[in-house]
Amino acid sequence: MTTSFKGTKPSRRQFLSGAAAAGAGTFVAAQARAAGDPAITELQPWTQQLGDGVDVAPYGMPSEYESHVKRRTVEWLTADPISSINFTPLHELDGIITPNGLCFERHHGGAAHIDPAEHRLMINGLVETPLVFTMQDLMRFPRENHVYFLECAANSGMEWRGSQLNGCQFTHGMIHNVMYTGIPLRLLLQEAGVKTEGKWILPEGADAAAMTRSIPMEKALDDCLVAFKMNGEALRTEQGYPVRLVVPGWEGNMWVKWLRRIEVGDKPWHHREETSKYTDLLADGKARRFTWEMDAKSVITNPSPQAPLTHGKGPTVLTGMAWSGRGTIPRVDVTTDGGITWHQARISGPSLDKSMHRFYYEFDWDGGPLYLQSRAHDSTGYVQPTKDQLREFRGVNSIYHNNGIQTWYVNEEGIAENVEIS
Amino acid sequence: AEAEGPFGLGREALPEEIAAWDIDIRPDGKGLPEGRGNVWDGEGVFVEQCAVCHGDFGEGVGRWPVLTGGFDTLTDQRPVKTTGSYWPYLSTVWDYVHRAMPFGNAQSLTDDEVYAITAYLLNMNGLVDGDFELSHENFSEVTLPNEDGFYMDDREELELPEFTRDPCMENCKESVEITMRAAVLDVTPDEAVQTM
């Protein structure tokens, strides 16, 4: 990546720091002064030679210069790469929609490859008529389109004891936000006829983990979707192809992928993923169960440890994302001095229920150290707490639901670091 | 307005289809199939099918999950959460082993083998004697130590009022100091953090 330098001349200290882009920018700027910018004065091959034909990429991929924009994993987090996690590169994205190929993955039995012709969805239990649907059947129900975030309950979970991973991809990247096309779950349940005693559902996956979760009927009839498209195309294999459950605002574990069965019952099942896992151990040794909603949260994605400031002082764009499982985000505050003074950021793009929101704060960087934080407000009036406020209620062993305010320290060279501050 | 049906789509599920897929077990024993297995047989199956990852005594090999022990550690700095120390219900053990284990060969165990493994896990956790046999008949008599260790999400009453307040915007604190740094730990994958 080369950037031609504009604005204030970088300090000698920045030049000597050798940060790649800052150095290259300075070099280009010096050359440009001498004899014109060769990016302009010399004929480039892409200007002279022909590009690719339209038959080269029937399904296109990003530019070769964007190959660093990818999901990453952290090997030491899990025992193996099958029941594991990877992370969305939030620091490279903008807007609110996550590209399908970059949506983080969380599997418990690997990503199943399912032939849609052989896939079935069963509804059984406390219903008038237990039913089996083929994919062809499902495509004949009325559809809806909604943009929702899916956040893993464990997103930021490694940070409960303090700053650990250096980059918002790792601290906040167990999230994606896409437009789902699907059938209101309500319609499928009505087709089977839920009996009056039916108070809970148990969705189950067709993969080797046969993931199950108990979901109260009220939520099932409210806004859950049985989705088969994301961002306009079929679900990706790793996101549950051919069909998954969408549980807006609630922890990602409940969004059962490769959905093959929904049982209706009168009590929760207390299965492994809602007893051993996805329960939140508190300091007194007791644990919360059924912590479904994801609280309001935000993170600054640029600058951040993977996206340092390389342009020197002057006009600077700070951006990030905010979301809440309880509604929309009418406001985000940001601070550059560690919370002494806060400024209201600017939200740009659609403000949708239980979806990511994109915020910006443009400021004139004086080249001094920055202590960056963002603070989301949601439509219920909830204000994103600090990590210390959360620890007062929960201790440090609850693993899940860490929505505490993130701090990035940016030094004079523009290098950013994950820190905690007083 | 959206049509609300019914649409007459799908077909009735057959009893044998439901039986093939509806394998879930609840704490009250609903869903448990007939069968039985004792600690002795459970040890045999466990050593053959489970110990390569979970260890001969459920202690866990390498980074694989620890299944036993960890009693009275839930308030420790590093709690050890196992079937014995943390799980509330035995039904969850039966259900999960039956639906998802062994890892890589799920749903290969017979009902009697799952009863036997469950009995062996109880024994390794010191909760039953070596001559114990678990069956669909005595299943509900077994309670796990941490059954009462869980309560319903109470964030709405406890936390939300505290976090629903107008926040400070100016002169919010005197000074700012760094108290912890991720770079000191240095556990982030190297290639991910670039200065470009």
Topology:
The complex is a heterodimer of chains A (about 425) and B (about 200).
Chain A: H1 12-17, H2 20-35, H3 38-41, H4 45-48, E1 84-85, E2 106-107, E3 120-125, E4 131-134, H5 135-138, E5 144-151, H6 168-172, E6 175-184, H7 185-192, E7 200-205, E8 215-216, H8 217-222, E9 225-230, E10 233-234, E11 244-246, E12 259-265, E13 280-281, E14 287-289, E15 297-302, E16 314-323, E17 331-335, E18 343-344, E19 346-348, E20 357-365, E21 370-377, H9 387-394, E22 407-410, E23 416-421
Parallel strand pairs in A: 3-12
Antiparallel strand pairs in A: 1-2, 3-4, 5-6, 6-9, 7-8, 7-12, 9-10, 9-11, 13-14, 15-16, 16-20, 17-18, 17-21, 19-20, 21-22, 22-23
Chain B: E1 11-12, H1 15-21, E2 36-38, H2 39-49, H3 51-54, H4 90-100, H5 111-124, E3 133-135, E4 150-152, H6 155-158, H7 160-163, E5 178-181, H8 182-185
Antiparallel strand pairs in B: 2-3
How would you summarize this macromolecular structure in one to three sentences?
The complex is a heterodimer of chains A (422) and B (196). Chain A contains nine helices and 23 strands.
